[in-house]
Amino acid sequence: MGRAGDGRLRHSLEVGSFCPFATLPGHQRDSPLELQAKAVVKDDLRTEQDSSRRSPLGGAPGL
């Protein structure tokens, strides 16, 4: 309710894992949605375990 953002899975070639990337309007990160998405895909995809490695590039081409 009141959330109209965007979400994607980003693949890191460096470590070979996926990381959810979700934004709210204004290019703010939606961390709760990212954690929820990670919980959904963790059994099917290798996900990034180190949250400090998450991409901070909101608005970058392809995101």
Largest sheet: 3 strands, antiparallel
DSSP helical segment count: 1
Mean pLDDT, as a whole number? 78
Task: Catalogue the unreliable spans.
Answer: none
Q: What class would the helix/strand composition place it in?
A: alpha+beta
What strand order characterises the main sheet? Answer: 1-2-3
Q: Approximately how much helix is present in the residues?
A: 10-25%
Radius of gyration: 11 Å
Estimate the strand proportion. Answer: 25-35%
Order of helices and strands: EEEH
End-to-end gap: 23 Å
Shape: globular
According to DSSP, the number of beta strands is 3
Structure, described:
With 63 residues, the protein is of the alpha+beta class. The chain has a domain at 6-47. The protein is 17% helix and 27% strand. The chain has one helix at residues 31-41, and strands at 6-12, 17-24, 28-29. A three-stranded antiparallel β-sheet has the order 1-2-3. β1 (6-12) and β2 form a beta hairpin. The chain is globular and about 30 Å long. The model has no long low-confidence stretch (mean pLDDT 78).
